[in-house]
Amino acid sequence: RYTRALEALAAAGLVYPCRCSRSDIARHGQPEHGAEPRYPGTCRLHPVPPAETLARRLALGEQEEVVDDLLLGSRRQHPAMQCGDLLARDRSGNWSYQFAVVVDDLVHGIDVVIRGEDLWASCGRQQRLGMLLGRAQPPRWVHHPLLFRPDGRKLSKALGDTALADRRAAGATPGRLLGEAAHAVGLWPADTPLPVEALPTLFA
């Protein structure tokens, strides 16, 4: 499915090979504090032979995207200024998260995306890519607050923080966990158990 999506974008003239590494991009200039590295379009401006690398980037254009979030409200994002042309496939042939998640959501008809605020900056580029792939309407976005450790880092499996399996082993029921999650994103009025049968009513 990813190959088909990339081929469709290539047919529209939006895809080009890219030989640049992360260190190459970093050498172009350090981002401002809190900003992400921005790809400057090096290989779009100076084309690379397709056989030289498996990596492919997408030219998303200069348009701004208006992103409507059910918790954060309506805001404008400018993908070209934030991240530059989007990496779809890396030099090892692996598909990027940013590309794969948009294709997956489109294929499976996902119309509500709930995730953490740390992915908020990705909305504009993903919304733009979805449109380029033929999506008529963007999904409804919900970016919820994150849970943090006392040292300020967000909770993470990589840091050994409590996982759902640990909660279940400690006696938490599926309804208890669903209720906590739905309440945290503002879809359930109280921090009480939520029967799985009630989930569809939250999105009516």
Q: In a few lines, what is going on in this structure?
A:
Helices cover 33% and strands 15% of the residues. It has helices spanning 2-11, 22-28, 42-45, 79-82, 97-108, 123-132, 164-169, 174-184, 199-202; strands at 15-17, 56-58, 65-69, 73-77, 86-89, 112-116, 140-144.
Write structural notes for this entry.
With 204 residues, the protein is an alpha+beta fold. It is 33% helix and 15% strand. The strands form 3 sheets. A 3-stranded antiparallel β-sheet has the order 1-2-5. A two-stranded antiparallel ribbon has the order 3-4. Helix 6 links the parallel strand 6 and strand 7 (140-144). The radius of gyration is 20 Å and the shape is globular.
Q: Which helices and strands appear, and what pairs or packs with what?
A:
Layout: H1 2-11, E1 15-17, H2 22-28, H3 42-45, E2 56-58, E3 65-69, E4 73-77, H4 79-82, E5 86-89, H5 97-108, E6 112-116, H6 123-132, E7 140-144, H7 164-169, H8 174-184, H9 199-202
Parallel strand pairs: 6-7
Antiparallel strand pairs: 1-2, 2-5, 3-4
Helix pairs in contact: 5-6
Order of helices and strands: HEHHEEEHEHEHEHHH
Low-confidence parts, pLDDT < 50 over ≥5 residues? none
The number of helices is 9
Number of strands: 7
Structural shape? globular
Average predicted confidence as pLDDT: 91
**What is the rounded Rg?**
20 Å
What fraction strand?
A: 5-15%
Provide the helix percentage. 25-40%
In terms of structural class, how would the helical and strand content be classed?
Answer: alpha+beta
Intertermini distance: 30 Å
Main sheet attributes: strand count, strand direction, barrel closure:
3 strands, antiparallel
Give the neighbour order of strands across the main sheet.
1-2-5
What's the assembly state of these chains?
A: single chain
